């Protein structure tokens, strides 16, 4: 006999109480799949309510799929209504373990991970003030759905900012604000990828970029990069790429600045192949030698799609990036963005617009440039002191350096050995699609490390290398 208590003094209705009790019994598997329930008359009698109360509760449970009626037989618990408890628990504990390991790692290890900005220097005070202002000042419409293009003010100030700092030639209507460069690149791939075509990608490249393209269905075609960046002669002249992906202002990871001759060659290539260049310009505000390198987009705004982000310049937590499109791609891109996530968070965009308009972005970039330059100098000085033979590769910009050993192979054994000395380094070979060209090179990111941590990290690396030399022969 089925029974549960009913509270006549509760503010919860009787129907709701019957419904909740039965639902809980089903979810805790005290009432099992295919089990028959008592008739409405029997249950009403046993719990002391009217038959209508039970009928209403049964009907709600039938509507939601927990119960089903078999004609001339009765009411049963439906199949497939319980999510197995063990699975949920396991997933939760896996996640907890993962989070714990991450926290544990970041306390104990010096992690030379690239592309992580200085989180300790986020301009919290100004951002917080602007956030409050935006929240109080904004018209009611701003709290509704907005256009997929993104906030109008942000696009306007961004167009001016990018023209001034990056030589980008665009009208605000060509800009779409995205959830970081990542979303921009994923949507571009969806938009441009045609059957039978590939995406030409400079090699090496970050594994994340490569995955963005392949997850969107692309066949990735590696195009070798040397100390000047992508080599245009290595592009396919037989098969058309949907687009060519490049980071011309500071190649990742090699740090090359693509010379104008190669830029022109690339533009001529995509014109001839009726294709596009996708330019990722993620960290080139931070240049420590010479002047800032201008974007490729300024060369041909019909063939170059420019992708930018605030992840490095400010913080990846904001998830604000942007894509600058040739006119013919604006409408189809806008549609993809709308059906992907409607639009990027409006209030954050408004805060960003004010942040730029009031001059805080320029100020922040100037300040961060000094900080990153200091970190870079500390890293290079410590490396030169500990390893006089080590070659530093690439343009002095961004938040990482690439170094090349004379003899040492930066393989998994070496990386594991470094971990034992509480220092994490990244082989360039890990980013290479065509293997075997970068085996002696490694990436050292310094963006999120203080100068003191950098020095400790290099000391640990020195210790690790000395022991590695003794244990591996010949060296
Ligand atoms: C080459 C490159 N471009 C862009 C980004 C920025 O991505 P997002 O704007 O989605 O944070 C990254 C992130 O690490 C990157 O490595």
TrEMBL record:
Chain ranges of the HTH gntR-type domain: 12-80
Keywords associated with the record: Aminotransferase, DNA-binding, Pyridoxal phosphate, Transcription, Transcription regulation, Transferase
InterPro entries the record matches: Aminotransferase_I/II_large (IPR004839), HTH_trans_reg/aminotransferase (IPR051446), PyrdxlP-dep_Trfase (IPR015424), PyrdxlP-dep_Trfase_major (IPR015421), Tscrpt_reg_HTH_GntR (IPR000524), WH-like_DNA-bd_sf (IPR036388), WH_DNA-bd_sf (IPR036390)
Cofactor(s) the protein requires to work: pyridoxal 5'-phosphate
Transcription regulation keyword on record: yes
Pfam families tied to this protein: Aminotran_1_2, GntR
GO-annotated molecular function: DNA binding; DNA-binding transcription factor activity; pyridoxal phosphate binding; transaminase activity
UniProt-listed CDD domains: AAT_like, WHTH_GntR
Superkingdom: Bacteria
Segments traversing the membrane: none
Similarity annotation: In the C-terminal section; belongs to the class-I pyridoxal-phosphate-dependent aminotransferase family.
Protein name: PLP-dependent aminotransferase family protein
Species annotation: Alkalicoccobacillus porphyridii
Lineage start: Bacteria, Bacillati, Bacillota, Bacilli, Bacillales
């Amino acid at each position: 006999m089925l029974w549960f208590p009913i509270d006549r003094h509760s503010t919860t209705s009787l129907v709701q109480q019957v419904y909740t009790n039965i639902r809980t019994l089903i979810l805790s598997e005290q009432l099992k799949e295919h089990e028959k329930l008592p008739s409405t008359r029997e249950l009403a009698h046993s719990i002391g309510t009217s038959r209508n109360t039970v009928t209403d509760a049964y009907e709600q449970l039938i509507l939601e799929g927990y119960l089903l009626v078999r004609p001339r037989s009765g009411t049963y618990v439906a199949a497939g209504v319980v999510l197995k408890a063990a699975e949920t628990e396991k997933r939760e504990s896996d996640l907890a373990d993962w989070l714990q390991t991450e926290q544990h790692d970041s306390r104990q290890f010096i992690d030379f991970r690239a592309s992580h900005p200085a989180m300790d220097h986020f301009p919290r005070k100004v951002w917080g003030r602007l956030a409050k202002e935006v929240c109080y000042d904004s018209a009611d419409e701003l709290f509704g759905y907005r256009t997929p293009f993104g906030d109008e003010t942000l696009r306007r100030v961004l167009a001016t900012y990018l023209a001034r700092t990056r030589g980008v030639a665009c009208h605000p209507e060509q800009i779409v604000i995205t959830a970081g460069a990542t979303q921009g690149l994923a949507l571009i791939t969806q938009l441009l990828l045609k059957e039978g075509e590939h995406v030409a990608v400079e090699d090496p490249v970050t594994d994340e970029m490569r995955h963005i393209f392949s997850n969107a269905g692309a066949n990735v075609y590696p195009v070798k990069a040397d100390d000047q960046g992508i080599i245009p002669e290595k592009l396919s002249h037989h098969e058309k790429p949907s687009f060519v992906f490049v980071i011309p202002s500071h190649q990742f990871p090699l740090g090359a600045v693509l010379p104008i001759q190669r830029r022109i060659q690339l533009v001529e290539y995509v014109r001839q192949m009726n294709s596009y260049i996708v330019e990722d310009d993620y960290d080139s505000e931070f240049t420590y030698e010479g002047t800032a390198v201008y974007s490729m987009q300024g060369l041909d705004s019909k063939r170059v799609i420019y992708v930018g982000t605030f992840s490095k310049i400010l913080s990846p937590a904001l998830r604000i990036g942007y894509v600058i499109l040739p006119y013919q791609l604006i409408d189809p891109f806008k549609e993809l963005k709308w059906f992907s996530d409607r639009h990027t968070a409006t209030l954050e965009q408004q805060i960003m617009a004010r942040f730029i308009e009031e001059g805080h972005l320029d100020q922040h970039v100037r300040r961060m440039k000094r900080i990153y330059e200091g970190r870079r100098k500390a890293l290079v000085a410590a490396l030169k002191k500990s390893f006089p033979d080590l070659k530093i590769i690439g343009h002095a910009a961004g938040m990482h350096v690439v170094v090349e050993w004379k003899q040492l192979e930066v393989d998994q054994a070496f990386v594991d050995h470094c971990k034992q000395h509480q220092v994490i380094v990244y082989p360039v070979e890990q980013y290479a699609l065509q293997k075997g060209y970068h085996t002696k090179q490694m990436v050292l990111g310094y963006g999120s490390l203080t100068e003191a941590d950098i020095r400790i990290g290099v000391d640990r690396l020195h210790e690790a290398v000395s022991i590695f030399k003794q244990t591996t022969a010949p060296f």
